[in-house]
Each structure stands twice: as structure tokens, then as C-alpha cells.
Amino acid sequence: MKSPSIKNILFYGTDTLSTAVLSKIHTNGYNISAVTKHSKSPVYQFCQKYGVPVDVFRKSELPFGRSSSDFTGCLGVVASFGHMIPGKVIRSMSHGFVNIHPSLVPKYQGAAPLPHTLLNGDKKYGVTVLEALPRSFDQGRILHQSNFDIPTSMSGSEFWNYTADNMADVTHAFLRDPSRSTPRSQDLSISSPAPRISKLQLKTLSRVCPHVQTADQIFNISRCLDLYNLSIVVSWQGKTLKLLSITPINDPHLRELARTRLRSGQFVMWDGVIVVKCADDTVLGVSRMVLPFKPIISAAQFYRDHCSGRVEKVFRMEYSSSELDSLASPQKVQTCR
Fold first, then answer.
1. Which has more pLDDT, 70 or 92?
2. The dihedral of CA 145, 55, 14, 82: what is its sign?
3. Could you tell me which residues are beta bridge partners of residue 182?
4. Which residues contact 80 (CB under 8 A, 6 or more apart)?
5. Is 9 a residue whose pLDDT tops 70?
6. How far apart are CA 201 and CA 144, in angstroms?
7. How many of the other CB atoms lie within 10 Å of CB of 36?
8. Taking CA atoms, which of 88, 96, 204, 316 is between 20 and 30 Å from 185?
């Protein structure tokens, strides 16, 4: 970047990740103008509340009806915007244009790095500040990069908020002195895409089958779905059951109990948690669930009210043989998005 004394920022963003970054920039006294996708976005609402000039994105025009010369002394910043920034906007920024991306690029380039991070069960991830380039997503030179651990107990929604804070902090650290960064090119030969996940793909992901998927695979899917306020679903006694508050169980006693006494998909009650045997003798704990048109109930209440007597205690899902083969393959589970 050209100067450590940047005061003017043109910001592009839309969601709550964007808003966390914008709030941090705003708190530190920069002169900000913002561009967002629509007037109902969190970024637009923030700007209205705090008096930040804001414009709605139009591909064919520079923001606010300005000319290129109006952006002299300006740095462009984009964070979780959802559109490619027009080349003429990027070229108008005299201090350059940076992208705040929540992954360790070249890993997870694209619109949905966080779902892919959780689906693949990554233990670490990061936030990268990189150059924004015309007509390309997430392929510019790396200017700054920070690594973070992903706590294994963290839900999808918690991971989203954690990432919002990390993106804001990394942006602040970079802006203190952009000229100190040493740009380095990405090794695009090892890049991995993170495309947007469609509603149909999310629905397919949510239909898990403990007979062929491991506890870790189901847990990773549940964390990904939580980003979208969705849940794992299984079939039980002909009903669709949503499983909430799930986690893999590594207790040796419970794993041995499941290995010797349960079939895959079968479950028992243990210390207030429903213990489900999954593929490869792995074990999943479920502490809350939802039956159709019913409120959330605890695992203990579900077991007490619905699993007495000779009721078969098995979660299953009706799949074709080809669908089961797809679910059983870890590569398919990771890329089915």
C-alpha cells in the first residue's frame, strides 16, 4: 500500500461480518463512505444509525455519482460483500483496494469459506487481507494473514460471531500501517474453491444417516447448517426429527458400549443424553430435538415420552443405494455443497 496515513475509506459490505469490520473502522476515526447491496442490509442499517454516508450498489456507476478524481487519497475495503467490485472502482482508489477474506487463501477462495471450513472439520483457519483485483475473486497478492484456532465445541453461529471479531481485529491491525505489508503472490496451484451453497444442497446435507456417516461427519454438517439456522434431520417412526445440540462422544466406555451392544443408527439414553451409534463405531450425543409442529424438548423428555416399551430405538433415513454410497464417501460429504 502507498501510505500509512490513510484517512479516507470507501467500504463495500453487506452482512454482519461486514458490519463488524465497518464498526471497527468507524470506531478508529476514519472518514468512511459505504456501499451495500440493498437498504435492508446490516451495513445499511449501521450507516443510518451512525451517520455514515451509504449508497446502494450499481454495477455500471461509481458510488454516490462521483467521478474517479473524487477518490484521491482513498483506500477501498471490501468485506463479505457478495458482488465483484467493478474494475473502474478499484482503479479509482489512489491507495489501492483490499479484500478482507475469512480464510487462509489460497485455501477456500470464493463466496462461502466459512461453511466449507466447518464441513471439512478444519481445526484452524484464518483471515487474509489481499489485493482486490478486477474480474477475479480472492486471487490478489496477500498483504496480511492471521491464523486462529477453531474450538471443537463451537457451534456454527458462534463461529460466525468469532469470525466477525477476528475480521475486525485483523482489519484494524492492517490499517495501522498498510505500508509495512510485504505483498506475496498466492500459489494458485494449491487453491481450493469455496462456492456458495444452494438451498437444495443444504437440504441434501441436512438429511444425515448414522448408518453410513461418522459422528464427526454429522457434527461437522450440523455446524455448517447452523450458519444458515438449519438443523440435522433424521427419520424416526415415520416422523422427521430435528436433532439439536449434538456433539461427538469420545468417552471410551460409551464407545465400547455402542460397539458391542448397538447397531448403527440405534440409540440409548445415558446420563440425560441420547447416545447414537454412527458409522465406524463412532458415537454421537444428542441433548435436544424437535418433532414436527412441536416445541424443542430435551433428549430425556423425548426418550421418556416416546421411547418406552418395545419401540425400536433407531434413527434412520430412507435413501436409495446410490445416495447411501454418496453419503458414505467422505469426499462426497465434503464436496456436496
1. 92
2. negative
3. none
4. 13, 14, 15, 17, 18, 21, 100, 102, 167
5. yes
6. 33
7. 27
8. 88
Per the listing, cell 416422523 goes with 239
The mean pLDDT value for 309-314 works out to 61
Q: What percent of the chain has pLDDT over 70?
A: 91
Q: Which residue has the higher pLDDT, 265 or 41?
A: 41
Q: Taking Cα atoms as reference points, which of 314, 317, 333, 334 lies closest to residue 325?
A: 333
Q: Which grid cell is 7?
A: 484517512
Question: How many whole angstroms separate alpha carbon 115 and alpha carbon 121?
Answer: 10
* Residue 329 dihedral angles phi and psi, to the nearest 5°: -90, 120
* CA-closest candidate to residue 186, choices 105, 96, 79, 101: 105
Q: CA dihedral defined by 212, 220, 288, 258, rounded to 10 degrees? A: 40
Identity at 260, one-letter amino acid code: T
8 A C-beta contact, residue 128 and residue 142 = yes
Sign of CA pseudo-dihedral 50, 52, 53, 57: negative
Sign, CA dihedral 136-137-138-143, equals positive
Q: What is the pTM of this model?
A: 0.89
pLDDT at 312: 57
